Backbone:
């Protein structure tokens, strides 16, 4: 016989937990709705393709978009091959119990949880003050050429930040490649490397794509690592060389909303810039979530 | 046989073997295969190198604070700037000489010009000769004062004031630590219950079809850049909470904490959901089979079983909040106060680095102190991660495998 009230408690538990789900979903939608409603009117083709005007109180965000694109491009070129190869090692070569593999896993997890501002400090201390300084003193006679914040150092710093994201999603998808396919390949006389090259990597392309998209989405939105490794307040032109500084969407939002002389007047521009950044990262992670969902479904079969 | 293999490996007399055997033996050793494995292994090793490099290079910049051995680089820099300054005084001197005679001339026109003129012939030379010792004095004193300021800087690290840019700079980390802890506590008190309850619903109560929608939807919050959350907090949340609570400073620890909770929720949620789903299905089946309700199973069987995993999730959430920079910069008000009132402005450790690094002189004490804060942050998150990884994970494994 059931004790009285048990059903009531069951209902309360379900209701409370469901409410917290709804509350989180409500927060997500309200951030989206408020940003869209605040920036929608300002968003136009001219806004996306014009340079900022009159001390950034008017005009568009073209250089910030180009800067973000260039930075994520270089970042992807550095992070994706590195991350994919590390994932291949972890999934294919490393045995579960080897200390070496465990250390790598721990290092990857550490990279994933280190605060992004530390990456900025590292970029400043390693890339700019160490590598850049030594390149300058070796090839440019001490003239400050690489030993200052620029596009390359910011991108490499960001690549380090996004490395664990790539590793995790590529490894996950490599593990979904069926064992039978590997065994078939090996049984036909292929070596391990040939199997990886011709069977495993083609089978996990969707995972590499997911990792790339997630990395771009994260890299486009992060600001802290590029605060002192390359982002510029305002530039009259888009960067043409690796050794130039660049404007970034996220940094633009931060500058406009906290350090601009006229925060209230430029509010529409800020909302529109936020909307552009949010749409970019949001749509990218939406695609990644969809891809990942397909990978997981494949894994379950 | 051994000889044959050896011959085959070295390629000597390979044609003397039977064709089948030789092809088999040749296949054993493939240069491309071995090479590929070494390349892949060494690339994988890079991630360990990166963590080590981060630690070394963030810590390296703090060395001038502790050691004289870390100083030569800085001294060079200082002497270079001192060298530049030694040029400037001359130009200043000439600028003064241009100005002063006129003003002096205006004060006493008739008598002094001649005597001054006589002196002026002499003075440039004496000034010149005096100037170099002066510069030498500056030159020599500069590193000494630097050392002294280093020593005093270390002694002020535990003081109550964070005043890095003043005549008598004080680098008290106490208000920064207090502010960081305050914001972290507010954020976790808000994020942890919400995220854990939501994870319980997703993992246990929700119908399977709904589960597949809720999980990716909440994980989308992880895709929101922190600068967007910071902007949202700055423009919307701050005004909203000010209307509700009616406190004086618009940006404060409470607003910052709530905003950071938004960043921590997806971390805690995902890991808690994973921990709950990885509890063996037999636990749930046994509990339900004994006649317990789903609610009883959830809170009395599954939740205790997943506790270590949930602790790990909360700890990683704390790590996320602790190092969060952009939200702290934009929404906490950035005033280094010592107070426990949640509605006062706070300045967190990471926001301090973010706000001040662009304005410091390279090699300065202030610069080193900012890197010291960075090292502390790194060590703290590293420890949290190690704790979550080894301690709690081992407990989960032991619990489920019955070891």
Residues:
């Amino acid at each position: 016989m059931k004790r009285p009230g048990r059903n009531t408690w069951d209902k309360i538990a379900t209701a409370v937990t469901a409410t917290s789900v709804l509350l989180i979903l409500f927060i997500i939608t309200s951030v989206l709705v408020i940003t869209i409603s605040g920036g929608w009117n300002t968003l136009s083709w001219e806004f996306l393709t014009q340079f900022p005007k009159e001390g950034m109180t008017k005009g568009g965000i073209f250089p910030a978009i180009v800067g973000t694109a260039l930075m994520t491009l270089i970042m992807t070129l550095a992070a994706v091959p590195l991350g994919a190869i590390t994932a291949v090692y972890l999934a294919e070569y490393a045995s579960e119990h080897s200390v070496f593999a465990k250390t790598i896993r721990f290092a990857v997890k550490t990279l994933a949880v280190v605060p992004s501002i530390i990456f900025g400090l590292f970029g400043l201390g390693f890339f700019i003050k160490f590598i850049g300084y030594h390149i300058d003193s070796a090839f440019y006679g001490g003239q400050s050429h690489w030993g200052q914040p620029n596009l390359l150092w910011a991108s490499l710093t960001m690549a380090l930040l996004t490395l664990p994201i790539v590793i995790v999603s590529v490894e996950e998808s490599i593990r979904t490649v069926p064992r039978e396919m590997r065994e078939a390949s090996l049984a036909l006389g292929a070596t391990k490397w040939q199997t990886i090259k011709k069977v495993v990597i083609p089978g996990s392309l969707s995972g590499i794509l997911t990792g790339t998209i997630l990395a771009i989405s994260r890299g486009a939105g992060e600001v802290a690592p590029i605060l002192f490794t390359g982002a510029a307040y305002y530039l009259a032109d888009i960067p043409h060389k690796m050794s130039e500084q660049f404007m970034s969407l996220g940094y633009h939002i931060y500058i406009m909303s906290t350090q601009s002389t006229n925060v209230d007047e430029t509010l529409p521009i800020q909302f529109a810039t936020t909307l552009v950044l949010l749409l970019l990262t949001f749509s990218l992670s939406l695609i990644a979530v969809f891809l990942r969902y397909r990978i997981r479904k494949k894994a379950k079969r | 046989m051994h000889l044959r293999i050896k011959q085959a490996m070295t390629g000597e007399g390979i044609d003397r073997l039977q064709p089948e055997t030789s092809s088999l033996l040749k296949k054993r050793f493939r240069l491309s295969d071995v090479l590929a494995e070494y390349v892949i292994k060494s690339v994988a090793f890079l991630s360990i190198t990166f963590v080590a490099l981060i630690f070394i290079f963030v810590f390296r910049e703090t060395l001038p604070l502790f050691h004289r051995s870390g100083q030569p680089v800085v001294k060079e820099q200082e002497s270079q700037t001192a060298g530049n300054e030694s040029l400037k005084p001359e130009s200043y001197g000439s600028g003064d000489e241009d100005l002063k005679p006129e003003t002096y001339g205006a004060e006493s026109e008739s008598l002094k010009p001649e005597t001054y003129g006589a002196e002026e012939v002499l003075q440039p030379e004496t000034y010149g000769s005096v100037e170099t010792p002066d510069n030498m004095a500056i030159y020599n004193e500069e590193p000494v004062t630097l050392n002294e300021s280093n020593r005093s800087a270390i002694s002020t690290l535990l003081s109550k004031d964070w005043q890095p840019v003043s005549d008598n700079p004080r680098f008290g980390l106490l208000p920064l630590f207090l502010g960081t802890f305050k914001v972290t506590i507010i954020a976790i008190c808000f994020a942890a219950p919400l995220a854990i309850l939501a994870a319980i619903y997703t993992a246990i109560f929700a119908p399977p079809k709904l589960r597949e929608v809720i999980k990716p939807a909440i994980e989308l919050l992880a895709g929101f850049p922190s600068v967007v959350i910071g902007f949202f907090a700055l423009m919307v949340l701050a005004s909203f909470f000010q209307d509700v609570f009616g406190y004086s400073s618009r940006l404060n620890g409470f607003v910052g904490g709530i905003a950071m909770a938004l960043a921590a929720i997806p971390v805690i949620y995902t890991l808690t959901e994973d921990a709950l789903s990885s509890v063996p299905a037999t636990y749930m089946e046994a509990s339900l089979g004994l006649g317990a309700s789903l609610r009883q199973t959830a809170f009395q069987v599954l939740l205790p079983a997943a506790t270590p995993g949930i602790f790990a999730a909360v700890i990683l959430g704390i790590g996320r909040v602790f190092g969060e920079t952009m939200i702290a910069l934009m929404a906490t008000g950035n005033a280094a106060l010592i107070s426990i009132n949640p509605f006062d402005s706070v300045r967190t450790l990471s926001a301090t680095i973010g706000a001040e690094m662009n304005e410091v002189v390279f090699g300065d004490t202030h610069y080193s102190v900012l890197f010291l804060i960075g090292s502390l942050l790194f060590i703290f998150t590293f420890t949290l991660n190690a704790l979550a990884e080894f301690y709690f994970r081992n407990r989960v494994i032991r619990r489920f495998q019955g070891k």
About this structure: The two ends of chain B are 48 Å apart (CA to CA). The first helix of chain B runs from residue 2 to 10. Chain B touches chain A through 90 residues (CB under 8 Å). Confidence is low (pLDDT under 50) at residues 68-146 of chain B.
